[in-house]
Amino acid sequence: MARLADYFVVVGYDLDKRGGSEGQGHILQRFPEKDWEDNPFPQGIELFCQPNGWQLVPERERPSFFVSVLTDINSERHYCACFTFWEGLDNPQLQKAEASEVDEDEVPGLVQPAQVFAPKSLVLVSRLDHTEVFRNCLGLIYTVHVDSLSVPLETVIGNLLTCVIPVAGGSQRTITLGAGDRQVIQTPINDSLPVSGSSVAHLFRQLGIVNVLYLFCAALTEHKILFLSSSYQRLTDACRALLAIMFPLKYSFTYVPILPGKLLEVLSTPTPFIIGVNSFFRSETQELVGSMTLDVIIADLDGGTVTIPECVHISLLPDPLLQQTQTALSMVLDPELEIADHAFPPYSTQPSTLKIQDKEIRAVFLWLFGQLFHGYRWCLHIIRIHPEPVIRFHKAAFLGQRALTEDDFLMKVLDGMAFAGFISERGPPYRPTDLFDDLIANQVERIRQEECSPHKVMNHIKELAEQLFKNENPYPAVAMHKVQRPAESPGHNDPKNLAIFPPLDDVTVQLFIDHAAAKLKTAPPVVKPELNGMVPSGPPLGDIVDKHGHVLANSARRLEVVRNCITYIFDNKMLEAKKLMPAVLRALKGRAARVCLTQELNQHVLQNRAVLDDQQFDYIVRMMNCTLQDCSHMDEHGIAAILLPLVTAFCRKLGAGITQFAYSCVQEHMVWTNMQFWEAMFYSDVQNHIRALYLEADGGELSTSSHGQQESGPAAGGQELLGALELASEQSRLWPTLSKEQQSERVQKEESTVFSQAIHYANRMSYLLLPLDTSKNRLLNRSGIGDVESVSNSYVTNSIAGSMAESYDTESGFEDAESSDVANSVVRFINRFVDKVCNESGVTNEHLKALHTMIPDIVQMHIETLDAVHRESKRLPPIQKPKLLRPILLAGEELVMDGMRVHLISDGREEATGALGGPPLLPAEGAIFLTTYRLIFKGTPNDPLVGEQVVTRSFPIASLTKEKRISVSLSMDQFIQEGLQLRSCTFQLLKIAFDEEVASDLAEVFRKHMHKLRYPQHVQGTFAFTVGQSGKTLVEHKTKDKNQSIKTLSKNLVKSAKRTIGRQYVTRKKYSPPTWENRSSLQSELDEDEISVSEELDQGSLTLSSTIRSSDRQTMSNVVERACCRDYQRLGLGTLSNSLTRSKNEPFRISTVNRMYTVCRSYPGLLIVPQSIPDSTIQRISRCYRQNRFPVVCWRNSRTKAVLLRSAGLHAKGVVGFFKSPNAPSAGPSQADSTSLEQEKYMQAIISSMPSYCEPSGRNTLGGFTSSHMSTSDSSDKLRQPKIGALMKQVMGGKEDVPGTFNRGALGQRARVISLSQPRVSGKARNPPGGKWGSIRGSGRLSAYNPEVGNRLSSKESPQPNGGPSEALFLRQQRAYLYIIGDKTQLKGGKQDSFQQWEVVPIEVCDVRQVKNSFKKLMKACVPSSATSEPSMTFHRCLEESEWMCLLHRVLQVSVLVVELLDTGSSVMVSLEDGWDVTTQVVSLVQLLSDPYYRTFDGFRLLVEKEWLSFGHRFSHRGAQTLASQSSGFTPVFLQFLDCVHQIHLQFPMEFEFSQYYLKFLAYHYVSNRFRTFLLDSDYERIELGVLYEEKGERKNPQVCKSVWDYIDRLNKKTPIFFNYMFSPEDEEVLRPYSFISNLKVWDFYTEETLSEGPSYDWELVQRGRQERLAEEVPDKPDTTTPKSQRHIVWPCYDSRSRVVPDAITKLLQDLQSLEAELGLPPEKWKDTWDKIKANQRAEAKLENRPSFNSSLLMSSNLSHQRRSQGVYLPESGVGSSINLAMDRETSTTSTPVAGRPSTSTLYSQFQSTESENRSFEGILFKKGALLKPWKPRWFVLDKTKHQLRYYETRQDKECKGVIELAEVESVIPGTPTMGAPKNIEEKAFFDLKTTKRVYNFCAQDSPNAQLWMDSIQSCLSDA
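RE: above sequence
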């Protein structure tokens, strides 16, 4: 029974304490005046009566009522029902004004009302929450006062305070306060269920389903929640509703449904809360919340919104549950939703009434908790039964069995305070039960079965709702209420009628209270029936169920493997076990296999001990480690718990009396440092022991089956084994019946059980926490210990103590810690554990102190034992590790550091790990070698199945781009401390982990050496210079050079330059070059040259002959014969006679102005400039350009005579001047003007050199111009023009393209195909000479494009009928003679003059930073450092993000534009950035596309030497080759160029003499520093170092090639690897590749690798490696027993596919070589063989009745889709097995396939082989075959017309077997019979035919016949 009301209080406005604007309230009277003993009076009531503050109002307001909730110090809630009404009083302001005549603060003019109204509150304080009853009672008191009823107020209040009602039980109690009223109070049946009325339904109506669910999850996961509303009662109801749906959890944080304005600071509390605030304070709240960290969730009840700040993350319910809950809620709240779409909806589907709906919603949440918590009782550990039950919850096991370890929401809920309260309240096994207990015990199965069918769920929810409703309303409502309300009379609100609420008589009220108290004392005590019972546990947690409800499958095969392996180990079948081991370790990733392992091991333990030998021990430990490593630190499946007894059981004998246990080898796992794990283990064991204690006590049989591990249940004999909870429940029931002695005895026994377990665990923990080697503290400062494992036979030094030392003892620095610190930290850890568990399980203080004194001794003892074990374990023979393999070194390459044992870990490339099929080659064990040239890993895979293979990974040390330390754990074997991740720009990644035998300082030495080699002080320290010299002279070496003149050239060039110029004119800028010896690095980054020549110089003094002394003249001739000059002569760009005179009639000349490298340091010595420009002008012009790189000619189109120029961009100041109109008035002849005029003169000179300029029709519009020198028909030319326009528009970005067209999106959407194939204008129409567009290689079919597609795509409007453009495609109508490709950013402010004959094409270039970043991303995409399954990290996504393809597209697009412009007769000047990166790329590509010569070996070499080396691309700087350029980073500009060439090669496979491999070879060696070719930044630097011409001098070491070109030449003679068999060029062919990203392919150079031999670009190494391998494979004795299989498995990324599966021609050439070797013939060079085959093929092709071909026989099987613009694909014919792909350029030039009209190539088809007139003579002759072949009769035909001698198999045969060209015949002479000649034929019948190539032996049937043949052939010869 409880009092209905504890206190009645009257609170009024305090007139005395009025301060400022805010008034105060004070308590006028309270009853009883003395506090109840059981319930002290709550403080601060006056604040809560008027939460908005006490204020006087000018008009009377209506009475109001609400309930506040106060929480006292014992977290008891007090409900304060406040009834407020307003009373009139005279305005205190006016009284004050009269008293003091004039107050300064008063504002005159404000009229104050004469009467104001003050609030007065009647407050009831109660511990019961009966809102309606309180409202009625307080209303009655007010009514009695207002209507002046005859009842004294004291009586009413006295009755109210003495009213006593039951708390629960479901009874109804009628009360009356003695004023003619009557009320029925209904108590709930069960007070553990909250009473909600209809507040929950209201809350959902106000906020909606999703919002309330957010609030629900936020409250459970302990977030701060703030309700806002303008109604107080609604705030209280909303808070009550939120608590009601949280049942069975109880909210235990700050709970204030109505917070007074004065206490708003409470909102800044750091703890979670649920608080309601009136909307009146919205702005203040916002400020407060804003000034905090914004972590408050605000629910606005009036607006229906929930605002969640960004920083707050609310964990929502796990997935299927959330969906099911939302569905159920919407079915309750909105039943019409389901049938809204029905054709025949039912007539009425109204939602239930609010009260019922309220219960239905609560039922949904009850059902939800039933699903969340089912099975929780199976995870309870009972650790004490007497005197009080102590219960702990095993969180990890609960989550593990529910497979929800990853679930954020459940984790937070289980860790929260509410759940802790739930366990302490509902954990005890013997207590009253309620609806939730029933749900968990009996209805879980039903929930599980029904959860997928919403209607069944709905029925269940309705049943639960009924029970909830019944709890609140057990009886039908009774209409017995009778409560008076104040009369609504007209004069009711009249102030004069209202009396002030009178002071009450204390004594009278007190008498009532005392009287009632006395009555209670005499009354008999109420006996509450005992409702305690055993709480049922419900069904146990079943199999693990994953997210989708499928039971996780466990393959029986895997478990079988685990069992077999363990059996083999214990049966000592070690070889079998070793084979199974990898499979077992893989299987142990599954939980079932781990459980199986623990069960199997358990069977081999006898009396807690299992002694093993070394190898068994090793295997068992390895399996344990693997098992533990795949467990999480929470041990949610209890695997570590089951292994714990095992690791102290398995052991091996090390020596006399010394035993090593398994625990010393499995310490490296996080689980052992997890305090929760140890607690759960401890409680589980204690529970088992206590259970055993009572089972024994009851005389039952001892059962070890533990409840904690779900093994209890019906036993075999049908006898129920009591679970610990059931047993505890039974004991609790019996407890009151026991005598005092029995009780204390039981308490005693339980305590000693807990105590002994604590000692046992202190021992266990010291086993697993103390490292084996306690003297060495090597693991203390290591970071991650998570995935670590370790085992080795020799000794194991692994521990976790270090990590603990860090986590628990932050104040002591552990860097130089002693071993005692390890001990101390372990002691501290165990002490903390003991304190916690002993306090929780109620161990007495004496026992606890005893434990604390024991622990250090336990630890110390264990350390001593370990020392002996450690000492002995070191003596064990080490495990056999694979022997280290030596790498093969190049000539001159030396080891810097010998091999260190490492493990090569797999990176993100999946091929080698076996993920894509094939064996796992990685991880592998081997050694890392550092040589002067490379980093090499060589080793063998860890997987025993491929253990005999050799894995090699290497890259040149110079290509290292990033080195990063990593710490690595290997899944199978030793724990490895540290590792390195080394990334190379040859697209290789070495991820190595040092073996434990490698000392860490050695690893550091390795890193330092690596850095030293990667970034030498100077370029002379690179491998190309140091090769062949001993390591001692690595840094300093001076050797006498035989080629003295070259050396002197370098010195003299510089000296004489300075001398000739004259000292007075040389001005130093910023830096003087130090002498060579003490200069550490070339400072080539200067913006201006070191020496600048001032203008007044006498040019005459600078002739070449005067500069160089006569002894050096030969050196100058070297400069002259530099390859560039040969090329300039080939192009007709000026000759250089010995006397350096010029021939005046040529437009260009070779200028020697830069021979001293004084005009431009980075240009070559000889340059092509217009004939008319004197050298002095050049010097002045050069200053306008960055780096002085002024425009020079580098190529001329032989047909249109247009020239290609290159230069750097203009200096910023020169830009505007350059484009000034020449007519603009200038202030005076300033220098800038004169330079810009000279620049114009220079441009004009270039334009004048073009033949088209001299013609009268010079300036036609672009639409369709023709000029006499272009031999093209008008119509086809018109068709070409729009293409350029479109190209131009794409490159610049026309009207429809925004300027930055090059972003990815735009490219993707507008990948326009620009096709230049012509329509069939007429049968005889010709292509313009040259011109070929790359085929789009999607399908293998030929496709002829419709030409209009190209036009339509290139300009948005459709073209005019004649093919001309429909709009001006350029900025102007005329065609410019010179286009300047310039950088957009450089060309701001320059106005174009319409009279100038040049035009600027502004484009956006990619700067080197973009290239650098793009390349980094490309490397990460192609060679990721670790495997990832994130969709954002897939290869294609990363490739796209790198934007590498966009950069290629950009360069190719600009190049194709320039090619087009040059081909149409305009000259082009490429003037971008500093003129040495993008400019070089574009200029080189343009020449490659326009001039077939550059697509040959010699031409490509020349192109690179000329454009890249001579014109000063900064190879050393961009490649970061020295220490000085280290900071600038690696920027692969040249690689980008090679990639572009590769893209063109793919589109035109028949136009290049070199193969793709050649490009890869260059890409590899341009960064490898093996050759000197790509070192240094300019010719000037090469001369200065004396390396420019040294290749011509004799070499000291013929083995060492200094130039990559020499090496390629040498290699090309030996092997056809660089040769492209499909090479059959067409004359003067201009290529126009497609540049859209969709047409570009990722270069396989980036992605392929060959692990069997390493990179194949160091050819000698690979050859030697192959020979060694072949030598090993040849067995000593021929094995005759088994036939050797011809099959060979080719593994991706291991074998070199081109070697194992060579293409057809390579295979034939190889076979030829091997045959030659077998026959002992001198080997013929492959090139000769090839040329011979080609010649024969041509000859045979001419003979047969097929089109004739000038192209070579193409024997490549992958040609079907790489076709040309014309071509036939012939089916396989009888000649050989090669594919004949016929291309004919000479005769058939239409773009139609040959099938169209009969082509001229069928010229000889009239000579049918049967027509006699062509057969001048025919008959049978015997012909001698090749070596060792017999004589054979053949039908010979002598053909005068074709001038051939042909032969056939038989006379009828149409197919010619061979041809002898009579043109090659030298003589016909009588011969002699040779071996194998036909018998019985006279000697004179033989004759010989001698040709230039060989001698044919023939034999006729008789001598006259022979004579006839000889005469006929002779006559044919003389006729010719």
